[in-house]
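A note from the maintainers: we've had questions about how concatenated examples are separated. There is no special marker in the raw files; a new sequence line simply starts the next protein. For clarity in this README we add a label.
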Amino acid sequence: MPSLKPKIKATARMIDGVLTRSPSYYKVRTLTQDMFSPAPPALRMARLRHLRHWTIHRAWQLFRRQYRERLDHERHRLHAGMYNACEELRVTRGPGSRDEGYLLRVAMLKLGLWKRGAVPIEYTRLQTETPPTLAWDHDWKR
């Protein structure tokens, strides 16, 4: 099996009894030494400490899973409500002689809600679960 070490060599020569090295010798030496750093030693724990670590780790994983499932359930509930509202708009006949689906099409167009040529607010900023830590940076300059 071939060696995984690089074939780059920084040469050193003896000229008149003085060891001379190329200008890039130290750079190449540093690169080759740092490229293949040894792996850290294995993590060793006593039996009870390992059991404590494993128990805390599993409890944390369980907490995270329950939190994710709670958020997922809430998002599914909100999505189902929006879907049902849109479905009701889709099957309802419009005013006057308008056909089914007119109300849904008008609601999805969102015309007349903002001043002329404006962008809907939900497209201007990424929606997040929590507010930002710094609401507005007054010192920002271009």
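[label: protein 2]
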Amino acid sequence: MKANTKSILEIMNVVSWIVFIGLCVQAGAVAVSFAISLFVNPEAAQDLYQKLDLQDLYNFGTGHYLVIGLLKILLTVLKAVIFYLVIRIFKNLNINRPFSFEIAMLTRVISYVAFAAGLIAMAANGYTEWLIGQGVTMQKDWAGQEWLFLAGIIFVVAIIFTRGVELQSEHELTI
């Protein structure tokens, strides 16, 4: 293996850790800001994490506000889970034997998590459209289709990895 490839993989591992930690912090910040707006200061709904303004939704109904808050937290947690799984891939990666059962399974699980995030985002998008139709002013930025597309691509990669594991095993048996 070239030293350049090893360096790139190490850099990608470090970047994955940074993104994972950032997403964990973001999920915590979103959860805390929603909790504060629900239980301590309802005025905080107009300036949530990253300038998210859901004051109109809060005034429309706290139940709807809670659902949107939980969906935002859930999607952020799912992003963090994906990067945790990527970190596990780097931990299990042996560049001399890249096709392993663990890598294939982790890749498949990533596709399932991305698919679940896509379905949740699509449902959240429909719910948000309904709320907007009820007169609530809010952003509609769930990106459900992108999640589903990502899930499809990763699933294809997982299938390729599974086939690679089979071929690598057959090759070892013939030698």
